[in-house]
Amino acid sequence: MTEITRDVVIVGAGAAGLTAANELKKAGLSVVVLEARDRVGGRLWTDVVDGAMLEIGGQWVSPDQDALKETLAELGLETYSRYREGDSVYIGPNGELTRFTGEIFPVAPETEKEIVRLIEVLDDLVAQVDPDRPWEHPDAEALDRISFEAWLEEQTEDQEARDNIALFIAGAMLTKPAYAFSALQALLMAASAGSFSHLVDADFILDERVIGGLQQVPLLLAERLGDDVMLDQPVTEVHWSDPSTGSGDGVRIVTDNGLEVRARYAILAHAPILYPWIEFVPALPRLKQQMHQHISMGFVIKVHAVYDRPFWREQGLSGTAFSPYEISHEAYDNTNHGDERGTLVGFVSDRNADDLFRVSAEERKERILESLSHYYGPEAKNPVVYFESDWGAEEWTRGAYAASFDLGGLARYGADLRTPVGPIHFACSDMAGAGYQHVDGAVRMGRLVASNIVEAARR
Known about the structure:
The chain is an alpha/beta fold. The protein folds into three domains: 2-42 and 215-284 and 421-457, 3-Layer(bba) Sandwich (FAD/NAD(P)-binding domain), CATH 3.50.50; 46-64 and 76-84 and 205-211 and 299-393, Polyamine Oxidase, Chain A, domain 2 (Alpha-Beta Complex); 104-200, Guanine Nucleotide Dissociation Inhibitor, domain 1 (Orthogonal Bundle). Helices cover 34% and strands 23% of the residues. The protein is built from 16 helices and 22 strands. It has helices at 15-26, 66-75, 109-126, 140-145, 148-155, 159-174, 183-192, 196-200, 202-205, 216-225, 286-292, 311-314, 350-356, 361-376, 409-413, 439-457, and strands at residues 2-11, 31-34, 46-49, 52-55, 60-61, 79-81, 87-91, 97-100, 208-210, 229-230, 235-240, 251-255, 259-268, 279-281, 295-297, 300-307, 317-322, 330-333, 342-349, 385-390, 403-405, 424-426. Strand 18 and strand 19 form a beta hairpin. Helix 2 packs across helix 16 (439-457) and helix 3 crosses helix 6 (159-174). Substrate binds at residue 347.
């Protein structure tokens, strides 16, 4: 057993943990970051697959993501705009493809009116929601007791309008069926981006990418910490003192590879669904344990298809494609900066993803490429590189893109999500307000928890 001592021990070398570590170090506190994987980055992962650079994890930067943009500037990283010249495509419930421009899908006039009206209703509701405290909305409990699907059914009888509005929250963001999360959870998702209109606008929410890949953020942050980042160290035990019993001070953390760290404070900077894989001594308070039983990850397959050229541009297409009725409910031109080849990225979420993991890998690939061909034509069936990001299979993530509450859970437990337990603090994108489930939220949470610990250490 190797023993080390620090002021703060951080579990998880993603954007939240590494941001916190750097902030704490600037404040004069000693730190160590323990990472279970053999790499840093958490849900950020830029890798080369069959000669193609792919963003296996998070990748986009939105105009409102100030914390992330400040970090990019500080690290000297440059961005470039997602390709969006030409027409987008939409496939309706009858399988008919229509080319269009703008934000609203090309649907029948009466359906378009309903979609616009619903966006206005949601924007008005979202304006009343503080993303850091959605449970304080005057109707929070009622909104949290009804599924987003049921709420939409109360708003309109237009099925296609409901399908398209649900797509932006259920398929594109929470990656859960709209009956599995509440209207309040949907409002939080929209409030975290500033408005529901922002989620509808692909040119806003998927605005830019980082040249060379977004994983450079955690890689460069880790570089500043040097040997204070330790890989291949899955944490198995967290021993902590309960201030109410006067049983000591600080934490003692044990990893699966024989490392023991003693520290004044700990930060758990990983997805909250992983807490059950850690033995806490004493056990976490009952309220925390109950809360953790009411949150779960979504499920999505991120599909990367690389071609010898971006052939869809020759057809005057932007690469942006949507349909609640397709296996791949959305897809985009994801061509790398300066690359002559063309890359499409598509997404298959919730129950569609379930179904595809019931068939062989070969059939799954065939079905996904068939779906992409409905948007872009038969040439989409023949990529030179094909890869599926399956974060549900990642041992230290177990889903995507972030954890969300079940019905009633957000109003009941949301206020307790970030609450420290003795010397143990919590930080990750899953518990952010602004930037929820995005890298921006992870950076914000890393800064916040570091500030809280510095303040506590000075008392």
